[in-house]
Input
Amino acid sequence: MKYTILASGSKGNACIVESQGVRLMIDCGTTKKYLTQRFAEIDMNFSDIDALLITHDHTDHTSQVKHFQESTLFSPSILNWEYQHVIPYESFKFAHFDIFPIKTSHDVQDSVGYIICDGYETLVYITDTGYIRDYDLQFLKGADYYILESNHDPELLMQTRRPYSIKRRILSDTGHLSNEEAGLVLSKIVDANTKEIVLAHMSEEANEVALALSTVQELVDNEHIDFNVAKQFELMFGGN
Output
């Protein structure tokens, strides 16, 4: 299994997971121009995506859905196109992939993260959640790859010029995971199988790459894991 993160952050999100010639895409935010450019860099077209998995209906995750009508669409929330409804904790198959959605906690009616297994390796993709339930840790343990939100540092967030209402939303149970919260979750779920961790959906104003990495690495304390940070507008490659 390999993955390519095309964009990660409040201005757009998109990630491709590929195995045995089948390509899944998680979310499709940003602009058509940006996605077209990134696809060209990896020698792909929109039509090469076999299935599109939506996490929730905020525009930074769904803005380019209309360009993936040739793909099979999966979503926990209502789309204006034909799609298959995703229900948290009800697994489904696509090609050789087993996909297990778990409920996330965000300020939207329906939102999920995805646990994706190709029969050999497992990838966990979770962003846009104020917290992760203890109940869900059992499903998240022992994955090969984690792409997990590490959105902000609370002190840096409070120093920004954002309205207090926005700061309060981000810090709430329906907001976004902080660096420390991400690290604490990861410390409970990584094991000897874990190869790579990508910190995702990082705030450009309320976080710093070095700070996020140091905070999470100190909590996880595993020198055998490769840690990376996904950028807002930059390709990142991982997996085998």
Observations:
- Residues 22 and 50 are 6 Å apart (CA to CA).
- The chain has one domain: 2-239.
- The chain has a mean pLDDT of 97.
